[in-house]
Design goal:
With 108 residues, the protein is an alpha+beta fold. The chain has helices at residues 20-28, 68-78, 96-105, and strands at residues 6-14, 34-47, 50-64, 87-90. A 4-stranded antiparallel β-sheet has the order 2-3-1-4. The longest helix has 11 residues, at 68-78. The chain is elongated, with a radius of gyration of 14 Å.
């Protein structure tokens, strides 16, 4: 597997809701090798032409490019937001063993 086939998907999750069921589903369904749930943070953003401030958690999802479309569709189904953050970031490099693990963990 080429390192360029590995991506990180970013999303946020409302701090008042438990993200563990979503994260577990993505890993159990082999859409993600690993999901990191970061601590609560303040998010300030524009929504419906108003500046909002909410407590959220940043979520990092490690997967492969071939699994991205299925992962994004499933994340949309699981996510409580009308328009959730779903950003796909390429991985430029990393440990070969870790890259191979991500590939194996997300193989259907």
């Amino acid at each position: 597997m080429e390192q360029l086939d590995v991506v990180i998907v970013l999303t946020t999750w409302p701090a008042a809701q438990d993200p563990v069921p979503m994260a577990t589903a993505l890993v159990e369904e082999r859409l993600a090798a690993c999901v990191n749930l970061l601590p609560e943070m303040a998010s300030i953003y524009r929504w419906n032409d108003a500046v909002e401030r909410e407590q959220e958690r940043q979520v990092l999802i490690k997967t492969t490019r071939p699994r991205v479309d299925a992962l994004l569709a499933r994340l949309q189904d699981l996510h409580p937001y009308e328009v959730p953050e779903m950003l796909v970031l390429p991985v430029a490099g990393g440990s070969v063993a870790y890259i191979e693990w991500i590939a194996a963990a997300t193989r259907p």
